[in-house]
């Protein structure tokens, strides 16, 4: 008989995992403490933008294979495997991760599970968490119920969440005191049969793989952005430099795009949480380079603000600036730690009139920073603008030609914060162009 699966937390990770588990043929219940979110999901409505996921959600809500609840009692007596996919946001008092949601999920599960079951942690956590949770589960488990814990980090990217979940690059199984490998192999049988590499290891390694991967990606981006600072001073072409580096298979071209830097709900918070955790472990210098990675990244935002100030000079106060893109990356409506939104608000605070257009991110950005002028179209945003900023590389922005904007803008000035336009072509059309890693 097929395993019954519960997924605790129906945010980005949990909602995707639940829908994909249903697609793999399991019966699934998603649980969240947010009643309104559960009601919407039960109607097949996704509270965020993610390609392919709405179709999958609707399909399996309709088939009855995917249900939603707020009741731990319901999942505790029903499921064989419980995935924990709740958030671990940055703590408000500092750099570390807020573990209260993970701890609450584990405790609630332990109190409500009525038969032997496997609990699988997927959330991104500080190393040492799984070992701590194993003890927490034992403390709160009902008498006679054996709860095993495994750690199985998630590597999905926003915008590719379904694809990354269905066909991951690798699976990592962190196994604790009770051996749970066979059950994990059953859960992931489809991917394993398709040849997905699997790493079976201990708790600590599995927790570290996740944060190490994000730290490496962040470092790679800041590495090229540090060279962008050099080419901005000395001249040279940062894109060509990245291409030439990327041909070396040991380096690779991916995540070497210079730009306004990384943002989102993962990379920035994860590198800060990792530094904080290793400091707690008495290794404060070990991850010191990540502070530098963070600083290089934040300096990219300063660079765009300074370029805008330089291009507008004493016209900035009251000038209209069009900001194209406000989500932290394309194909996402997520504005958490978005470099684009940060730049937009800073220019607003400096006195500019900032008109924003993002194909999906406007509503989330407006909730965080309502005072910008959110536009329904790119053309409305650029109408009368003295400066255009391209800050998220949505396809519709990458396809822009100078002639598309010329009838509307007041001044032909653009900052390409993602280096996706043909700069020479725009300059040939009379535009003043600034870009990342480029002398101005
Ligand atoms: C990231 C990781 O890529 C996933 O593997 C991981 O599972 C996820 O975090 C997580 O921990 O949950 P995500 O935050 O969705 O995924 O976004 P990425 O595609 O990694 O992009 C992060 C940021 O880096 C974006 O702001 C993007 O614009 C920026 N970036 C990316 C660059 O500035 N340059 C690049 O070359 C690549």
From TrEMBL:
Its EC number is 1.1.1.22. It catalyses: UDP-alpha-D-glucose + 2 NAD(+) + H2O = UDP-alpha-D-glucuronate + 2 NADH + 3 H(+). SMART domains: UDPG_MGDP_dh_C. Pfam families: UDPG_MGDP_dh, UDPG_MGDP_dh_C, UDPG_MGDP_dh_N. Substrate binds at residues 155-158, 210, 255-259, 263, 329. Residues 322-423 form the UDP-glucose/GDP-mannose dehydrogenase C-terminal domain. GO terms for molecular function: NAD binding; UDP-glucose 6-dehydrogenase activity. InterPro entries: 6-PGluconate_DH-like_C_sf, NAD(P)-bd_dom_sf, UDP-Glc/GDP-Man, UDP-Glc/GDP-Man_DH_C, UDP-Glc/GDP-Man_DH_C_sf, UDP-Glc/GDP-Man_DH_dimer, UDP-Glc/GDP-Man_DH_N, UDPglc_DH_bac. GO terms for biological process: polysaccharide biosynthetic process; UDP-glucuronate biosynthetic process. NAD(+) binds at residues 32, 37, 88, 124, 158, 269, 336. It comes from the Bacteria. Keywords: NAD, Oxidoreductase. The active site is at residue 266. Pathway: Nucleotide-sugar biosynthesis; UDP-alpha-D-glucuronate biosynthesis; UDP-alpha-D-glucuronate from UDP-alpha-D-glucose: step 1/1. NCBIfam families: NDP-sugDHase (TIGR03026). Belongs to the UDP-glucose/GDP-mannose dehydrogenase family. This is UDP-glucose 6-dehydrogenase. It comes from Paeniglutamicibacter cryotolerans. The lineage of its organism: Bacteria, Bacillati, Actinomycetota, Actinomycetes, Micrococcales.
């Amino acid at each position: 008989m097929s395993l019954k699966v519960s997924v605790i937390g129906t945010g980005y990770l949990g909602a995707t995992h639940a829908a994909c588990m249903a697609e793999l043929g399991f019966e699934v219940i998603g649980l969240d403490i947010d009643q309104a979110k559960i009601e919407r999901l039960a109607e097949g409505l996704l509270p965020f933008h993610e390609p392919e996921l709405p179709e999958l959600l609707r399909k399996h809500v309709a088939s009855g294979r995917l249900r939603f609840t707020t009741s731990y009692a319901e999942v505790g007596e029903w499921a064989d495997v419980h995935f924990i996919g709740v958030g671990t946001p940055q703590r408000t008092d500092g750099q570390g991760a807020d573990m209260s949601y993970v701890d609450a999920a584990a405790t609630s599960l332990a109190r409500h599970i009525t038969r032997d079951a496997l609990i699988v942690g997927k959330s991104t956590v500080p190393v040492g968490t799984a070992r701590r949770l194993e003890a927490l589960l034992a403390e709160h488990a009902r008498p006679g119920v054996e709860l095993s814990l495994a750690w199985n980090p998630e590597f999905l990217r926003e915008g590719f969440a379904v694809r990354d979940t269905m066909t991951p690059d690798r699976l990592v199984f962190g196994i604790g005191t009770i051996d749970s490998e066979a059950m994990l192999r059953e859960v992931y049988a489809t991917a394993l049969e398709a040849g997905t590499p699997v790493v079976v290891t201990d708790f600590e390694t599995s927790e570290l793989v996740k944060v190490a991967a994000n730290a490496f990606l962040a470092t790679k981006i800041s590495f090229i952005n540090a060279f962008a600072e050099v080419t901005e001073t000395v001249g040279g072409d940062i894109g060509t430099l990245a291409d030439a580096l990327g041909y070396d298979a040991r380096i690779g071209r991916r995540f070497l795009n210079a730009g306004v830097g990384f943002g989102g709900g993962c990379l920035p918070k994860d590198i800060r949480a990792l530094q904080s955790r290793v400091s707690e472990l008495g290794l404060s210098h070990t991850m010191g380079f990540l502070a530098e990675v963070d600083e290089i990244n934040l300096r990219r935002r300063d660079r765009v603000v300074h370029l805008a100030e330089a291009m507008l000079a004493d016209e900035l106060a009251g000038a209209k600036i069009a900001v194209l893109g406000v989500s932290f990356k394309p194909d996402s409506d997520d504005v958490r730690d978005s470099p684009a939104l940060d730049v937009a608000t800073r220019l607003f605070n400096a006195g500019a009139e900032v008109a924003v257009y993002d194909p999906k991110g406007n509503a989330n950005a407006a909730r965080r920073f309502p005072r910008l002028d959110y536009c329904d179209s790119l053309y409305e945003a650029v109408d009368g603008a003295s400066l255009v900023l391209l800050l998220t590389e949505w396809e519709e922005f990458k396809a822009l030609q100078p002639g598309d904007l010329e009838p509307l803008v007041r001044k032909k000035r653009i900052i390409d914060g993602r280096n996706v336009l043909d700069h020479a072509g725009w300059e040939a059309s009379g535009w003043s162009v600034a870009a990342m890693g480029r002398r101005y």
